[in-house]
Structure formats: C-alpha cells, structure tokens
Amino acid sequence: MGRSRRTIPEELLLLALDPATGTTAQPQSLDLGLAGAQLVELALAGRIAPDGDRIAVVMPRPTGDPTLDSALELLRRRGSPVRAVHWIGGPRLGLRQTYLTHLERCGMVHAVAGQMCGVLPTTRYQATDTAISREIRTRLDSAIRTGVPPDPRTAALAALAHAVGLGKHLYPGNEGRSSRSRLRDLIRHDPMGGLVAHAVMDVQNGVAAQPRRAPATAGAGGGRAGGGSGRRSTSGRPSVESAGVPAQPAHQEAVMARAGAS
To answer: Residue 155's closest CA among 182, 200, 187?
Structure first.
C-alpha cells in the first residue's frame, strides 16, 4: 500500500478535529471508530474480508503501513475469524495518539501544549493544511447532496463518521438535520463499512456480547441503516464533546476480557 494516499483512520481523525481550536469531537467513540477504520482499510487493501459478522484474514502479507500491519498481525494470530464487534470493543490504548503523531510527522497537524484547569498538561492538535480537511469534507458533502453512490472509501468514511456521532459536529443545528440523515443512509453503500459501523454502534450500546442474528448486507432493509433484528435506534447520537487528547479510556480493556477467544 502506497503511503501517498491517506488512510481512512487518518481521514476520520481529521474530520473529528476542530480546525480552529484543536479539540476533538466525540473522543471516546472516535477511538472505537479508528479501530473500525483500520478494518475497512485492510479490507480495501485485500488483506481481510467479512465472513458473516466476523472478520477473516485472506492475505497476511504486510501492507507497508506499520499501524495497519500491527492490526493485521493481531488478526492473523487469532487463527480464526473474529467478530467485528469484539475486535472493535477490545483495548486499543494509544491508537488515537499514534495517528495524531503520524499526522504531525506528515505535517498535517501541529501540537499545541496547554493546561487543563490551569494544572493538568494537555496537548491539542490543530490542522496545518486545512485544504486537506476541506477536500475530505467536500467528498462527504458531494455524496450527501448529489445522491450519487460514493466510492467505497467515501462510503466507509461516511458510515464511520455517523457511527461515532460526528454528524452533529459536521452538520450542526436544525439546518443540518437532512444532511445528518443522508450521512446515516450512506452506510448501506459499502458492505464492509456497514458491518464495521454497526459494530461500533453495538459496542457503544453495550451489546457486544450478543451475536448478531442478521448481519447487515448492502442495500438490506431498503434505506434503513441498521436493519438487523432487534437493533436499537441510532437516530439519537451523543452530543459533540470538546476535549484535547486525554488518555485513552482504560475501561475499554475490560470489554474484551471475557470475549477474547470468540
């Protein structure tokens, strides 16, 4: 995989960063989204493929991206397909910081040191080249407003943006309601992106331990995003949180404690 192209985890993170303040929207759900975005990127690279609601390694050859290759190796070591919801819900301590550091090294963001409550040191990341963030946003806007089916990368990015709750960050207020609805509907245009996005929402809803009865497929359930049996409504997403880059939530380590062998 050539490194001239930005990966979906990098693009998702750039979407979540406020270009003016360097704060991060939906930081906790974003961590889940980054883990899911890695799966989508590996699928687009032909390294993994969906197997029902599980993820199977189909080509263990490295991609050339160290962070993706680390995830690929962990999947390979499992020896059998792993449920997407278990993978995404597992501990991913430091993943967001890894991508922020990479974006800083590439010159796309720069670190700004500060303090929280005048005591705790914090680091915010502001976009250095806002044209890149605008280009990513333009792709989403085009897919939302034209109604033309987007390419798989844009469809997957839209699905993940909706899953982690970035809709109100990207399209705020009553005037953004229709755009948020269309963002949600884009989830059906990419099977892998849809599978991963639903897994991200399942983890947030606390249903990671329950196997899905009807895995989502492209176009299933008409225009409804999340047409599986018993799925909770995803219309009410968490509000945008403004924060710097706090430590990754340690409680995520417990999510996989009992499900690791699934």
So the answer is: 187
Strands (E), the chain: 48-51, 54-57, 82-83, 109-116, 120-127
Q: Which letter, b or e, does each residue of 54-63 get, where b requires 16 or more Cβ atoms within 10 Å of its Cβ?
A: bbebeeeeeb
CA separation for the pair 29, 25 (Å, rounded)? 9
* DSSP state, residue 215: -
Helices 66-78 & 95-105, crossing angle to 10 degrees? 150
The SS3 assignment for 193 reads helix
Structure token pair of residue 35: 């883990």
Structure tokens that stand for 144 in this block: 């939302």
What pairs with residue 49 in β-bridges? Answer: 56
- What's this model's pTM, rounded to 2 decimal places? 0.74
Give the H/E segment covering residue 77.
helix 66-78
pLDDT tens-place string over residues 207-256: 755 555 444 444 444 443 333 334 444 334 333 333 333 334 433 333 33
Query: Both tokens of residue 159?
Result: 């699905």
Where do runs of H (alpha helix) occur along 106-190?
Answer: 130-146, 152-163, 167-170, 177-185
Contacts of 62 (CB under 8 A, 6+ apart): 69, 72
